[in-house]
Amino acid sequence: MIDLSWMRAALIGLTCLVACTDDGMGADEAADGDGPCVPNQSEACACPGGGNGAQVCEQDGSGFGPCACDTGDGDTTGDGDTTGDGGWDGESVPSWSNHIVPLLYDSCGAGINGCHSREAYAAAVASDCRGWLSLEDQPLGAEFYAGADIGQPTGCPDMPLHDRLVSLAPWQCAADSRYVTAGSTEASYMWQKIQGQNLCEVSPGLLSKSMPPPDSGIVLTETEKLMIEAWIVAGSPNDN
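Below the sequence we write its predicted structure tokens.
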């Protein structure tokens, strides 16, 4: 899991709903400022010319790298749509490919390094193939996409985005949890992150952030929230 016209004008798609995350959805639980952080973790940052960008934690965890700011028009889907809801009529079951995937790209920075792109994802057998969530709509997981092990196998299979959402547990939550549980918003961590409730612990006493992060300046519109809710309640269908 936006004022997408503003976001695109701000030159970058950012952390969304769901999680810059894997948060539980994303790599959004970064430390503030220049303090220690988790390698490859990312968070929103302010761009010099205004708007938001993303910064990624250094490999040694010493702090965040420079703020990456796009200079394009922000239309990460390439279809020219700037509404964020893909023209959803508000009544029919939202389409995975026509509504949900574009929203994830536009609101979560799925195609932007440092947000929810593949660079943030590092699946590993030792962690039940969980990792910082990538919302990129491509089969991912079989290799590392950043860091010293880039290109090396993880021991996990490549999984399409829909499979990752409905099959994998968020890295900081219980092993039997899921980002999306078909038919149940209460059991879907993606929805809980959007609502800012029932958040899992990143570390003892420190809860994961809601999505979009409160300090990101990005807000999901009610229509976008309803669209995600309707898709989950309808059974999270995949029309690919």
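The chain has a mean pLDDT of 75.
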